[in-house]
Amino acid sequence: MKREENIELLRRAKEGDREAQDRLLEGNMGLCKSIAARFRDRGVEYEDLVQLAAIGMIKAVRSFDFSYNTAFSTYAVPLIIGEIRRFLRDDGAVKVSRGTRRLGADAMRKREEFLREKGREPSVAELSERCGVSCEELVFSLEAVGPIRSLSEPAGGEEDGVPLGDRIADSEDGIGKTTDRIALIEAVKKLPPEQRKLIYLRYFRELSQSQTGQILGMTQVKVSREEKKIMELLRKAL
Fold it and tell me: For 153-172, what is each residue's pLDDT tens digit?
């Protein structure tokens, strides 16, 4: 759907025009379906996931503010993802075995061991090797004992300059990666200016913590602490 048509329908829908809301939902159903497809194999029928995505889209229509100066689809993506994840988390749609939960707890312990030994976060491959399971089994077990996340854990090491977008699992399709990046961009926009600059220097210019500290007038230790704080804020936002 064209941007101009989206805007006109949005105005009418926010004024209570049900037909405009239905047309807006229909015109953006492709986005709902692409996001819903990413949550298949979670114990919920695909059609139900699409309906949850549609609910998120409707909430986006009702809460959208034209002063946000952002495209409606960009604004809607985090709300759609959030609606599906809230259902999976709160309604207990995903039934997890005791064995999976034990594996998740064991993986968290081995992650802490790796952090102490190496001073950085392990990659999925490194952690799965330590646990003696496949990467797929590891990721599923970690989701069972922790919050559902759209991005993999940031390594955050001193010389780690991999962009945040590259943290997304390789198994996701192009649309999935795009929606994750949109959600991430929206979350970063809400950070204070100094924190946004730190993220820009570390993950887009790929500078080390020491180089970033020199630019921002901070010590390397201060940059490390701030970075961990920012990552926690972004994880909660996503």
Answer: 443 444 444 444 444 334 34
- List Cβ<8 Å contacts ≥24 apart for 107-114: 107/131, 107/138, 107/141, 107/142, 108/142, 108/145, 108/146
Comparing CA positions, the residue from 9, 2, 3 lying closest to residue 23 is: 9
Dist. CA 185–CA 191, nearest whole Å: 10
**184, 204 in Cβ contact below 8 A?**
no
pLDDT of residue 204: 72
Fill in the amino acid letter for 59.
Answer: K
What is the per-residue burial (b if ≥16 Cβ within 10 Å, else e) of 166-199? ebbeeeeeeebbebbbbbbebbbeebeeebeebb
Which amino acid is present at 166?
D
**181-193 pLDDT, tens digit each:** 666 676 777 888 8
Spell out the domains of the chain, with CATH numbers in brackets.
3-90 (1.20.120.1810), 96-146 (1.10.10.10), 162-238 (1.10.10.10)
